[in-house]
């Protein structure tokens, strides 16, 4: 996994959560993908942390 730290504006980080079986994964339009979580709230937290930089 690689995480980029490009100075993108918040508009370029559109995060969403998708369900994969029993898990929920946060994804971003920049290509970032969070770890699989059992709870959507955790996936959202991952997305929020990513979008915040
Ligand atoms: Zn992003």
Bound molecules: zinc ion
- Oligomeric composition of the shown chains: single chain
- Quote the distance from N terminus to C terminus: 16 Å
Number of domains: 1
Layout of strands and helices, then pairs:
Blueprint: E1 15-20, E2 23-28, H1 40-51
Antiparallel strand pairs: 1-2
Could you characterize the architecture of this molecule?
With 53 residues, the chain is α+β, with helices and mostly antiparallel strands. It has one domain (14-51). It has one helix and two strands, in the order E-E-H. Strands 1-2 form a two-stranded antiparallel ribbon. A hairpin with a 2-residue loop joins strand 1 and strand 2 (23-28). The chain is elongated. The protein starts with 14 loop residues before the first strand and ends with a helix. The model has no long low-confidence stretch (mean pLDDT 88). Residues 13, 28, 30, 32, 50 line the site of zinc ion. Zinc ion is lined by residues 13, 28, 30, 32, 50.
